[in-house]
Amino acid sequence: MNMTSDNPDHGFQFPGVFEITAMGPAGAGLEERIPELLEAIGIVVLRETVAARNSSGGKFVSIRLSFHAEDRGRYEAAHAALRAEPQIKWTL
Questions:
Q1: Contact (Cβ atoms closer than 8 angstroms) between residue 41 and residue 77
Q2: Where are the domains of the chain?
Q3: pLDDT at 12
Q4: For domain 16-91, is the CATH number 1.10.3720.10?
Q5: Which of 3, 30, 47, 48 has the most CB atoms around it within 10 Å of its CB?
């Protein structure tokens, strides 16, 4: 059975471009490390979208970027790869 939505506003649509945010300690080089981790598992990272923002106290940094996922499995693999990295504390 093939389930599709006639409304593009219903949930994720694959293939597609998605945004991910990962947070970890400032000064750990996560601006480069996060895209590298995703590319190492075959995720296409849109490098021009990589943006960093320091926390108010300067202890943490959040890295936001967009990536291409062919299906939900690749989307979930991106989150799993980042969560497996010891320096990364959270992903959204």
A1: yes
A2: 16-91
A3: 83
A4: no
A5: 30
Tell me the residue type at 23: M
C-alpha pair distances (Å), 54 with each of 1, 5, 28, 36: 46, 38, 12, 20
- The span from the CA of 91 to the CA of 69, in Å, is 16
The DSSP letter of residue 36 is H
Q: How would you write the pLDDT of the chain (92 residues) with one tens digit per residue?
A: 555 555 566 678 999 999 999 999 999 999 999 999 999 999 999 999 999 999 999 999 999 999 999 999 999 999 999 999 999 999 99
Which run of H or E residues covers position 24?
strand 16-25
Phi and psi torsions of 91, nearest 5°: -130, 150
Contact 1, 39 (CB under 8 A): no
